[in-house]
Write a structure and sequence with these properties.
Blueprint (H helix, E strand, L loop, with lengths): L1 H10 L1 H16 L8 H20 L7 H26 L2 H4 L1 H6 L6 H29 L11 H5 L2 H25 L3 H14 L7 H7 L4 H4 L3 H13 L7 H32 L1
Length: 275
Amino acid sequence: METTRLAGIWSQRKVLDTLVRRDLRVRYARSWLGYVWTLIDPLAMGLVYFFVFGVLFGRTTGSDDLVFIVYLLAGMLPWNWFNNSINETARALYAERLLVRSTNIAREMWVIRVVIAKGIEFLLSLPVLVLFVVLILFGADLGSGNLSLNERLIAIVPALLLQFVLCVGMGLVMAPVTALVDDFVRIVRIVLRMLFYFTPIVYSMELVDDKLPWARDLMVWNPLVGIMDMWRVGLSGKVGVDGWAWITATIVSFAWLAFGLWVFRKLEPAVLKEI
C-alpha cells in the first residue's frame, strides 16, 4: 500500500514543484529584504550562541573563534531546517484545509512540500557558513585530518537525504494528529525546545563522552546526532566519523518514514471528516 502511495506522489511531482514555488513566493512576497532574511537570521543566532558559549563560557580563544563559529553554524543551519519543517508540517493539513478537501492531490504532498521549501531555504542560508569557511582556509588547512576537504563534502549527501527522510516521516505523523488534536502542536513545540539541547548543536559529543559517558548510548538513538555529525564532517572540517551514530540515524530516519506513511494512511479518513 505504501509503495502504491509513494508511486502516486511521484506521479504528481510537477504539482509538488508548483506548491513549493508557491510557498517560497508567498514567504517573501511582502518582504523588502526577501532572500536576505535566510542569511540574517542564522547569522544573528549563530553570533548570539557564539557569544554565550564561546565567550562567556570560555569555549574559544583567539584563533579558535572562527572555527567555533563554523562549528556552531554547521549545527544550527540544519537544525533550523528540521525545527521549521516540524513546526510547519504539524499544521500543514489544517492550514490548507480548503485545498486538502477540494483537490485530488495526494495529501502527503502538503507535508512534503513544506519540508522541501524549508530545505531550499536552508540551502540558501549556506553562504553564511561558506563565508566563514573561506576565512578559515586563509589561515588554516581544513584538510589536515584523515580526509581531504573534497572527501569531506561527500558527507553532505547522506546528511541531506536522511534529514529529508526524517522530516517527512515525522511530518506525516504530526500533520494528521495535530489536525485531530489541536493541543498536540503545543506539545511538539515543547519537545523541539528540549530536543535542541539533547542534540549536539552548541556542544560536541566528545563533551558528552567526557562529562556523561553513560548518556552517549541513549543520545545516539536521536537520529539528529548522526545527521549533525554528517553535516559537520562535510561543512565544518570535523575530523573523524561517528560510525555508530551514522548507522542509527539511517535506521531511525527510515523507520520514521515507514511509521509516518502508516499513521497518515490510517488517520486520513478521520482527518478529512474533521477539517
